Structure formats: C-alpha cells, structure tokens
Amino acid sequence: MAFYSPKEVAKLTVEGGVKKANQGTTELLISSFLAGAFIAMAAEASTMVGHDVAKYLGYGITKFLIGSVFSLGLLLVVICGASLFTGNNLIIMAYLSGRTTLKKMFRNWGWVFLGNFIGSIFVAYVMYKTNLWQANHYLVGASALKIANAKVNLTITEAFFRGIMCNWLVCLAVWAMTSARDIIGKVAVCYFIIMAFVASGFEHVIANMYYIPIGLFLKDHFQVVQAAGLENALSSLTWTSMVVKNFIPVLLGNIVGGAFFVGTLYWAIYLRESPVQVEETGLDINS
After folding, report:
1. pLDDT at residue 275 is higher than 60
2. Which of 74, 112, 135, 179 has its CA 20 to 30 A from that of 232?
3. What is the rounded CA–CA span in Å between residue 199 and residue 61?
4. N- to C-terminal Cα distance for the chain?
C-alpha cells in the first residue's frame, strides 16, 4: 500500500516513543529548541499573511488562510526533524505497551516543553527586533497584539477545551503523517489537519509561546496599541496571566487531547489485546 495501516502506525508510534524516551538531555534540548522555533516561524508567517485579510475576504477565509500558512510549523518539525511537546504526547503509547516508564515519559515531556519555550520566545524576540511588526502602518503589530490579548482573556474553561481539540487534531496529524510513505503524502495530510485546527481557533500551548510573548513585547508601543484600538484594554496582558490563564489550562487540555484521545484510544484499539514487541524498522518518527 501507499501508506501504513493504522495498526502499523500504532506499532511505529510505540517504537518512536521508545526512542524519544531514551534520548539524551542535550539532544532533547537542541531538537526541542528547533521545534519551538519552527512553530514560532509558522505563527509569525500566519500573522503576517492574515493581518488584514478580513476586510477584503471576510472572517472565515482569513482563518482558512492563517491555518494554511501555519501548517508549515508541523511540516518543519516532522520532515526536518525536531521534538515537539504536543506530538510527544504520543509517547504514552510506548508506556502503555510496557516499552518505557512513566518517569522517562515525563522526563521527555519536561525537557521538550522547556526547549520548545526557549525556541519559541527566541524567535518572538528576534521578530520583535526586526521591526517587521511596523509593516503596513503598524497593522502587523496590531494584529499580533490583538491575538495575544485575546488569548490571555479566555476563561480557564475555554482555554482547556480548546486545548483538547487542538492536540486531538495535532496528534492525528502526526499519526497520519506517520502513515504516509512519501513526502507528498506527509505534506498533504499535515496541511488539511493543521489547517482545520488553526482555522477553528483551538489553542496550542507551544504556538502560544510565540503569540503571547510577541504581544507582550509590543504592548508598550503606542503606535501598535493605537492601531489595534486597545488603549486602556491591555491590563490582562502580563507574563503572569500568560502562564496562569493560558499556558496551564491549554497545556492540560493539549495533554488530554493528544495523550488520551489519540494515544490511549488508539493503543486500546490496536495494541491492548495483543501487545507486540515492535521490531526495529529504521524509521525515525520526529514529531
């Protein structure tokens, strides 16, 4: 077949999870730094492309275009090779199969989360220093500021459930990309699934490590605030609210969406009744 069957994908995901759980700390930090940077690049590009589309093509088409551009992020992670926290939620399949330990899984998640944050905020700072946010009479920066402010003003419940839906789709994208045997197949399945998550308005904790810090860097620039129409409306946009009101509930939602609705449920379907020792295939699943 031109693709791996779901059961074969389950076995490959277990194998990939074992490899990831056993990675050294230095390798984890470097590869996760890159993944955070790749997701941030996609977030930046989607902001640039979508910042003024709505007044010409409407809200729905704007979301579609933003989602289309953002799919670049996971493509870079998987095809170029990097470690993304949300995709690594699928390591739970290796744990449930008895191929790794809970300690190793949480160790991987911890280091990768840290590396993703460093990579994301690094790109946010670099983009801030480029002054490209001044483009189109500060409207690019205004769009970035609006996005950041909206994210820290979600309720805890909204952030949590949007986080679930996000990583349910992201891990399905990783799953589908693993099934594809060639680059074109991986690009095709990644595009449609990631576009759907972004266009829907779901919350991805790693992407938010770019979206919110860039807003925090811009909130003291009067021209940007004025262009965004947010004078006296940015009191919630702080580093503390970024963590408490967004990162924590979105992180928990992402774990539920990826580790349970994809990892655990597919393990239950394909591996629970007849656990197998996955043979080495030479396939490296970087996601």
Report:
1. no
2. 135
3. 9
4. 23
